[in-house]
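Contributing: when you submit paired examples, paste them exactly as shown. First protein:
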Amino acid sequence: MTMKDATPRCPACSRAILGDDVNVAKDVAYCRACNLAHTLSALVHAGELTAGVDFSRPPPGVRCDLSGGGLLVAATHRAPGAAVGTLVFALFWNGIVSVFVLLAVAGTLHNLHVTAPAWFPSPDMNGSPMSAGMTLFLWIFLAPFIAIGAAMIGAFLLTVGGRTEVRTDQNEGTVFTGIGPLGYRRRFLTGNVSDVRIDDRQWRDSDGDRQRKTVIVIETREGKLLRFGAMLSEERRKFVAALLRKALVR
């Protein structure tokens, strides 16, 4: 669907807005039935997002509930292929880092005058026991590598049992990302949502390699952006975004 061949529909009454009431140059589409003018590009974007989505049949891994005057949509992050790849890399990375962590622990125990287990690596460096200063430096040096390893383990757990969940009532919505009850929540006002879309973000990292992340974006009338859903499959992400747009954008 493109700006040239799309037939926009009024979000208020769902009627098609015909060519005589569409002004591409001014980006305006006028619904005569509702006597309302809409932004043409926004209507076309909404049509692209909801195209092919059957709201009565959520894809596997997605659960939604529209009862009780609110909305609940939850989508699992479960992806066996990604889980295996993440686990292999996490084991490789943490296996290497663990050797240096044990060395740092051995140096710490030595400086605390505590006997380390026999299977620990020797804290000696150049024939001399590791000093307190060298031990501290080693811990500081290892900190980012340990953090990366922990993030990999977290990513593996998310691909096994993580989920993205959005709950709304009449006034407030909550976006949750995590595993079970553990995760982080962000709140927004449902009446303040101006747009829901899928955004494909691309950038280059410090090594110059191109990176890409596809996310769901909830935009408020003040221009604030709430991004989430990067770990969802394309099918699940599109269904969640389309359902949220239908429920929240007026």
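Second protein:
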Amino acid sequence: MKDKRGTLLFYMPRFHCPLPLAAGAQFDLPAGAARHVQVLRLQPGDAITLFNGAAAHGQWQAQIVEMGRSHVQVRLVAHEALECEHRRPVHLLAGITANERMDWLVEKATELGAASLTPLLAERSVLKLKGERGEKKRDHWQAVAVAACEQCGRNQVPVIHPAVTLAQWLADHPQTSSESRAVLSLAPGSQPLLHAISAEGAGPVVLLSGPEGGLSPQEEAAALAAGFAPITLGPRVLRAETAPLAALALLDQG
């Protein structure tokens, strides 16, 4: 692969390493990252990139020092203050979709820069998650987000929050003066996204989207009463897993 100047670039494998990282540190990788290194058949002396997923901590160039049957030891070489986040943090509140579509939504929302994602137990959600099953799904989606960060070059891992109803979320999150809120809507009079929310504005954005079939009239009314502006993405009706991704891409322009 080459950059815009024609310089030859080499892909360096990236791994999430949720540990304190400091110059010169030498340590064993966590089990998941170690297995990934072994699967890729990397060897002592090979270079890799590590990031711990925390805000504004960048990434580290590291070198593999030792390979064992069940461990991989690395040494941190140099820090890179590199981030590729949205200008405005975008927090996605998304109706839970059926089957693997939610996995796809979490993966692509991570690639497109969502700062967090809250799965919404909407009235029309096909998948209903409670208790232990809900916690397992949340852990799974968090792992999907981590893998997407490794692939796309992000160093800040979006938080996947516990699934909640819209009423619960609204009760726990009163609107702040710096926050912009928008709900994807088919209602007449909805504004184009970038008319309602500026990609270059200040403060976080909360983006609400429904599941298959959309939000119920009661849910949409509650959102509007809580400060969500109704927005549209154009004349076509997008799928539940497509619409919030298109909105994230628009908010990343400029």
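If you have annotations for the second protein, write them as plain sentences, like these:
The radius of gyration is 20 Å.
Residues 1-9 have pLDDT under 50 and may be disordered.
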